[in-house]
Amino acid sequence: MRIARFSIDGNVAFGAVEGEGPDSLVLDIIKGIPFAEFELSGTKVPLNKVRLLPPVLPNKVVAIGRNYAEHAAELGNEVPEFPVTFFKPSTSVIGSGDEIVYPAFSSDVQYEAELAVVIGRMCREVPRERAKDVILGYTCANDVTARDVQKREKQWARAKGFDTSCPLGPWIETDVDPADLTIQCTVNGEQRQLGRTSDMIRSVEELIVHITEAMTLLPGDVILTGTPSGVGPLADGDEVAVSIEGIGTLANKVIKRG
User: How many CA atoms lie within 13 A of 111 on its CB side?
Assistant: First the structure.
């Protein structure tokens, strides 16, 4: 099931996305929220008549750095012995179609296409064999990074946590195996990244085990699983899109605050 969060006539709701072609997609409005048992209302609205919102509003986004060997190498880093973990605040989250605002304190903002895991229930100290039980589904993410700031500051909080630096969407796919999916990024229609989730150093299950050893994850929290090689700069006016096999495409335009 594809679950979208959207607004229409000033109201916010979740809906199940039905159909295949871009012009034929409709939303069957969900009674309740997707983090508990819910029913489809049978009330349907065309997707092109609503505004897509970030599929969740996470309490926290837990991100993993250097989880693809070729990406670590392209930035001159070794594969870490343990996962590199950092946070992106909830205020960094935007949806598909929203604008990435180039921060005034950076001159080198870059894209990073990533598979995002959406947590479906509160969990802590999750054993590997139960990791899939705590997942609601998966979505596309762009771990937008001020690379120059990341290099000069020991903490990554500003470089990766500025407003609009965490696009998520377009929806949550609950029925996909994340083990070997094509993941790509295009800028203005030109392919910049192309990889497979099977190249991740640590799997989704391993990451959930590692993270929940330290902290409780809540329904709607998001894990970013790292990016393949090919990261590069974004400029004012660029259209950047992250596509993941079996999930969909997350698209955003870059602007400078003027």
Answer: 32
Rg of the chain in Å (alpha carbons): 17
Q: Quick: pLDDT tens for 92-102.
A: 999 999 999 99
Query: Does the bond joining 170 to the residue before it have cis omega, within 30 degrees of 0?
Result: yes
**Separation of alpha carbons 230 and 157, rounded Å:** 22
Could you give the percent of the chain with pLDDT greater than 70? 100
Judgement on whether residues 77 and 184 belong to the same structural domain of the protein = yes
Q: List the CATH number of the domain containing 111.
A: 3.90.850.10
Mind listing the pLDDT tens digit for each residue in 139-172?
A: 999 999 999 999 999 899 999 999 999 999 999 9
Domain span at residue 90 reads 61-256
The number of distinct structural domains making up the chain is 2
In CATH, what number is assigned to the domain containing residue 37?
A: 2.30.30.370
Of all helices (H) and strands (E), which one includes residue 211?
Answer: helix 204-212
Q: Which residues of 41-53 are buried (b: 16+ CB within 10 A; e: fewer)?
A: eeeebebeebebb
